[in-house]
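Moderator note: this is an archived Q&A kept for reference. The question asked for a predicted structure of one protein chain; the sequence and the answer are reproduced below.
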Amino acid sequence: MKKVRAIVSICMVTLFVVYRLFISQDASDHRYKRGDPVPLYANKVGPFHNPSESYRYYDLPFCIPDKVKLEEKKETLGEVLNGDRLVSGPYALDFLVEKDLEILCRKKLTMEEVAQFRRAVDKDYYFEMYYDELPIWGLIGRVENREETDDPKDYKYFLYKHIHFDILYNKDRVIEITSRTDPHSVLDLTEDKELDAEFTYTAKWKQTDILFENRMDKFSQTFLPHHLEIHWFSIINSCVIVLLLTGFLATILMRVLKNDFIKYAHDEEAVNDHEETGWKYIHGDVFRFPKHKSLFAAALGCGTQLFTLTVFVFLLALVGVFYPYNRGALFTALLVIYALTSGVAGYTATSFYCQLEGTNWVRNLVLTGSLFCGPLALMFCFLNSVAVSYSSTAALPFGTIMVIVLMWTFMTSPLLVLGGIAGKNSRTGFQAPCRTTKYPREIPLLAWYRGTVPQMAMAGFLPFSAIYIELYYIFQSVWGQKIYTIYSILIIVFILLLIVTAFITVALTYFQLAAEDHKWWWRSFICGGSTSIFIYSYCLYYYYTRSDMSGFMQISFFFGYMACICYGFFLMLGTVGFRSSMLFVRHIYRSIKCE
């Protein structure tokens, strides 16, 4: 009971700290009077189809008005991780002050600057700004090919010179801002020559009845009705799979187990121990500890921590923390919650390792702390080096890296050690319903389809089929310019994923034991996590058929970080698969008498 209270207390403290952290970030409730300056920040530019490849706004040779003093906005940790680098914007959009045709600046573009703009237009560069914390998006130019040929000489490149802002307000607050470019006010960049450019803008204000508290609702309604139908079709499809699978397993397993129990009860009365077959025959080996038990316990610890992390993130999503354009909120949540839940990994891994009669619990704790963080850190170092070589805002500054290192040193590591000490002192032995024999039985020769790889394929396909429709929308949000806001559907899909993973792993574990193969510990973990292999295979499909991403940097970020995400799913779902199988195996062997 004390452990349960301690866990609940830790959960409540974690939620409170993270929630207050995000509430303190929401400082956009500004009120203005006529003529007051409204903060406008230019954020970044980059190829529209390469979301990871972003650059500072003024990396392109945009003109800077003389009256604008460039000041960088102080950013949160999550904003820096998100690649945001906000700096004073070039436009003066004072509250309720309309601009009919304001000249931003006049500039003579050199041949190098023309070539730089032309390359940007060719890659469909977009710009992103924030006006009173409201996002502004737009393309910087367009490409025309009136001859409709593939000859590069027939392409013409145009840079937009004029932008129009429509701003809605309610009393003394800004409610909405949209921008549009003038297709007739363009600068021809096709030829390599110096150009004289004059950039202009206009601004119109209009009153609205939309409340300030609801001004972000339009970004939450990004899915069209037919898209919502597809989402619900995905849910129904997943529910059907779950019902069919659970019904099939319940029917088959209950009948088979009932027959097994009757048979074994009869065998006990006849005292024909030599005639035992099936899963009872290996009762003396089924609870034999697995090989590499330190690695196994560390994997369970990391998987439990990632599962806890996922639950906390979903809880924050339900209370509305991740509202659209709450910049960097998700990254901050992932980083802080992972650090605060490291004690869960330490406690789970060390306590289970001690149950397996392990002696070097310190080494096990070090392995737990590096099993997931190690590959993630190596991948981050590589990808950050790539981003630095591209001079991209995706490259983290040295100060941010030091903050993360300090968090890991003074928060993650101490909590991991405290959790490990608590797990070591729990001193709970492994509760096995059957006594383990001194020498293991020989496993009979099995059919090819009972091997590890075929079992992984079967175990991973069904859970993947329950989530693959929703994966497309998640990928569009993470690796595209869409906004994902239907967290309730995502939570339902996640619950269905856990149910299918648990049931299919239990079924495969039973068939493995029925074939007198007692090495089920690692098999159940690997089969449970095999869905991650299908998810990573979907990455290949999505990249080549559903996206227009290109370039070494984008490819590196996409496949590199997806490898880390899928590895995390492998640990988490593997933990779910093993825990489910352990409950099942304990139950069936507790139901029979074993000598």
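Archived answer notes: The two ends are 33 Å apart (CA to CA).
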